[in-house]
UniProtKB/TrEMBL annotation:
<keyword id="KW-0406">Ion transport</keyword>
<keyword id="KW-0631">Potassium channel</keyword>
<keyword id="KW-1133">Transmembrane helix</keyword>
<keyword id="KW-0633">Potassium transport</keyword>
<dbReference type="InterPro" id="IPR007866">
    <property type="entry name" value="TRIC_channel"/>
</dbReference>
<dbReference type="GO" id="GO:0012505">
    <property type="term" value="C:endomembrane system"/>
</dbReference>
<keyword id="KW-0630">Potassium</keyword>
<comment type="similarity">
    <text>Belongs to the TMEM38 family.</text>
</comment>
<feature type="transmembrane region" description="Helical">
    <location>
        <begin position="186"/>
        <end position="205"/>
    </location>
</feature>
<keyword id="KW-0472">Membrane</keyword>
<dbReference type="Pfam" id="PF05197">
    <property type="entry name" value="TRIC"/>
</dbReference>
<protein>
    <recommendedName>
        <fullName>Trimeric intracellular cation channel type 1B.1</fullName>
    </recommendedName>
</protein>
<feature type="transmembrane region" description="Helical">
    <location>
        <begin position="217"/>
        <end position="239"/>
    </location>
</feature>
<keyword id="KW-0812">Transmembrane</keyword>
<feature type="transmembrane region" description="Helical">
    <location>
        <begin position="92"/>
        <end position="115"/>
    </location>
</feature>
<feature type="transmembrane region" description="Helical">
    <location>
        <begin position="136"/>
        <end position="160"/>
    </location>
</feature>
<keyword id="KW-0813">Transport</keyword>
Length: 293
């Protein structure tokens, strides 16, 4: 592609409006994620999945709204801003509520089944990843205005803005009557959280002039990064490409190498009785094989 054309495309992507298409895709996937998370709960109780939405519509709606606006809720709480501010946007709240309704209560469950089809799922995920990059960037910019020299805070809020739904999971499950403290993003960070952390660092580095590249190219590169790995996880089953780097880092800097050396040094020699037993077993096996022949 011609460099100027590529630059024009990157500029257009940078100026994209998130409402309605990208926000709608985000709301759909969030409501589907909450509904899918109800499946284990219903199976454990021996009930049908649709029973929960019928019996507890308020809980289902509130948990879906918490996931849809999770990044703003958590970021506002940490920055000392009103937590309920996301509900001030009546248009976004009404859109998310309508989507929650059609995902859970459409006739013959058509909307849910349609969104689960692979072509529609790919389209929704691509739109959501574009919005994720937008959220990370604006989280970094907003926090940098409040704490210009608080680099750790800037990176943290950018990451939370990008994957607030993952960090909100335990609380929104609690709204639905589930408490699973052993499963959260701090204990087991997902690839999305790690990718948002990397994107926050990139945007912060750009703001500090450590990266001498035009902003549209950096922003477009982050969008491509998000979209590419999301499609790879769906189509190719690539769950977390950071795992090899993490394993190498832990082996070198987190004591993994020394633990392996200590286990090798402290390995107990095989006892004489165990050696005799192993020899006897080998003899018995050889005799049985000869009998079979």
């Amino acid at each position: 592609m011609d460099p100027q054309t590529f630059m024009d495309v990157a500029t257009v992507v940078t100026k994209l409006k998130m409402y309605p298409y990208f926000d709608v895709a985000h709301f759909i996937l969030c409501c589907i994620a909450v509904r899918d998370d109800i499946v284990p709960q219903a199976q454990a109780a021996g009930a049908q999945v649709v029973t929960f939405q019928r019996k507890h519509p308020l809980s289902s709606w509130l948990s879906s709204m918490l996931v849809c606006f999770a990044g703003s809720f958590i970021a506002n709480f940490l920055l000392g801003e009103p937590v309920i501010t996301p509900f001030k946007d009546q248009r976004a709240l009404a859109t998310a509520s309508i989507i929650w309704y059609v995902v859970n209560y459409s006739p013959f469950d058509m909307v849910y089944k349609l969104c689960k089809l692979l072509p529609f799922k790919l389209l929704l995920c691509m739109l959501k990843e574009v919005q994720r990059a937008h959220k990370v960037y604006h989280g970094v910019i907003h926090t940098a205005k409040i704490y210009p020299n608080g680099y750790a805070i800037i990176v943290l809020i950018g990451m939370i803005k990008g994957n607030g739904s993952g960090l909100m999971r335990n609380f929104e499950r609690l709204v639905r009557g589930i408490w699973v403290p052993g499963s959260n993003e701090i204990l087991q960070p997902t690839f999305v959280t790690k990718a948002c952390l990397v994107a926050s660092i990139i945007f912060l580095s750009e703001r500090l002039n450590f990266i001498a590249v035009p902003h549209p190219l950096i922003y477009f590169g982050v969008v491509i990064f998000f979209v590419y790995f999301k499609l790879s996880s769906i189509l190719l089953g690539i769950v977390d490409p950071f795992v090899p780097l993490e394993n190498l880092f832990c082996a070198i800097f987190m004591g993994g190498m020394w633990d392996a050396m200590r286990r090798a040094v402290k390995a107990e020699p095989v006892k004489e009785e165990d050696k005799d037993g192993m020899l006897r077993n080998d003899v018995i096996k050889s005799k049985e094989e000869k009998k079979k022949d």
